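Key idea: predict the complex, not the pieces.
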Amino acid sequence: MERNYRKLWWQHCLAIIGFSVIPLLFVNFSLYKLFDRIYTEKVMENLRNSAENRRDAIDLFFSERIAQLFTIANTNTFQQLTDEDYLNKIFEIMHAKSDSYMDIGIIDSEGHHLSYVGPYYELLKQVNYKNEFWFNEVKANGIYISDIFMGFRKAPHFIIAIMVRERSASWILRVTINLKNIDDIIQKAWTGTLSDAFIVNRKNVLQTRPRFGGNFLEVPAFPEYTSDSLKSHPYPDYSSIVASKLERVTYSGMDAFFAAVPIHNTKWILVIKENPDEILSPLVQGQHWMLLFTAAGLAIIATGAALFTNTLINRIKETDRENAANSDMLLQANKMIALSKMAAGIAHEVNNPLAAIAEKAGWLKDLLAEEDIAGSKNFAEFDESVDKIEQHVGRARKIIHNLLGFARRMEPAKEKIDVNTLLDETTGFLENEARYVNIRIVKEYADNVPVITSDLSQIQQVVLNLLNNAIDAIGHDGTVTVSTRYHDKTDEVEIDVADTGKGIAENDLDKIFDPFFTTKEVGKGTGLGLSISYSIIEKLGGKLKVQSKVGTGTVFTILLPKH
Amino acid sequence: MDTLRVLIVDDEDDFRETIVKRLNARKIQAEGAASGVRALEILKDKDFDVIVLDVKMPDMDGIETLRHIKKLKPEIEVIMLTGHASVEFGLKGMQLGAFDYVMKPAPLNELLDTIGQAYNKKRGLIH
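Result:
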């Protein structure tokens, strides 16, 4: 039964890989998902904190400005402040510690610009603000912070105006805020190289200049620079939110985190935008590491599985081979037992008639020896026939005795044998015969062959048989090599008898140890030699093996245990 | 002068009868018995010097017969005739007191030699 080792290999290998890889991937994937969620949450939280922190800074800025304006308005009289020299002095003081203001002006309830300190003196001193949108707002609310607008000066700016009521009269203190202040606060939110922050009013109009694209009073949009044109993608509209909003938005193939918070003191919305690639770069890095580790893990598992499976399959192959060899040997041994029983039976059954024939022939011979028959004219014919009968009975007897030898179960002797000497003696018997047909007997003995304990005459019989076979196989002109070797691992002595003869056909190889199997001409071989040799060596605890190649020669190997 | 007296015990008639004739022709007083039982009956009335005993016989085999013979007349030498495959039986016979064993079919000369040796041994023992 031949196993499909390749299929078995794949089955085992894939099973090992499967059982190792699935948990690995599952764990890695779960860990990654968990890490991703936690990290993203953390990043969003940071973004919210950052946005609220900026919002608080802006609120604080406005609160301080308003407080300062009220202080100025309430610690100075209307008359003092309408004096431009005085106002200039106040403005100098306000400016000394900060550059929050661009200009300052005092306006009466009719909209007349009573006094002004700032860079637009010529332009603004004459204007009447009565019809301006903010004038009524401040009159109604007492405090007004405007959106960015162009105004009379035709430049983007925004103002803080407070209404001061003194007895019956009331007047307005108005300052223009230096835009740089707001920019400074907002720009602190540009934590990454791709992050952006800006302010929109309730109409989704930019109140600050964003880092990338857009300008004051435009709708916030992300610029996309293509080779020949500039396209803008509007940002999400957060102008109507009432509470902080945090989201991840994918738009026009872009991916961005947005945090939008309303500013308390104004009607503005602070928007911070972060690029996920940047803000989540540790996560991407983690992803790469995880992929790398997973790949390395897979490689290790695959290699390990392959190596392990190799070892396993080799072991299975070895076991299969051993089993096959064992069952072959068992089969051969069983065959031998059955055949020896049969041989014994045949020997007995043939023996009795043969003995009777021999005796009858003997009796005839006895009678022929008597004088009166000796004179008969056919006496010579009778005599010859009886001789022939005896001769052929003798031949049959020999075969029977060989058979009995095959079937014999005698305890082998235990003698100390020097194998090399034994081989020298045995080859000695045949050297003359071999020389006659021009066959050389070469001896290649190992020096370390130990003295073994076995049955000398039986081994000699086997070796003689193998040598005879070798000479027969060559016919004439060739070499018979007799070599010895010692296997110290198994404590066995090996005797090889190799010939340069015609070899044995593969079909015949497994039959050569069977009794009566012979390739020699009828009458020349009994076909018992090798089977007797086989059973002798087996009884001595050894092994008799054969290797042969047609046209090259045959090697018989005897393995004998040292004890 | 003593004549050598031999009893041939073998179930094969042709073999037994012929060998008896041939021994008689050689001035040996030979007789045949077709079975172990028959041999023991004959032994009650007659004495022999040597018994040639086939190992394998129906009913009572050679080994069994040998035991009885050795009980009955231990001075008679017995030669086992092993047509059977194993030398074991021959050896076993010798353990039980047989003189020797001869492989069947043996040439008459070989058998005569062994018979002669057995006879000499017996006479040596008596004298």
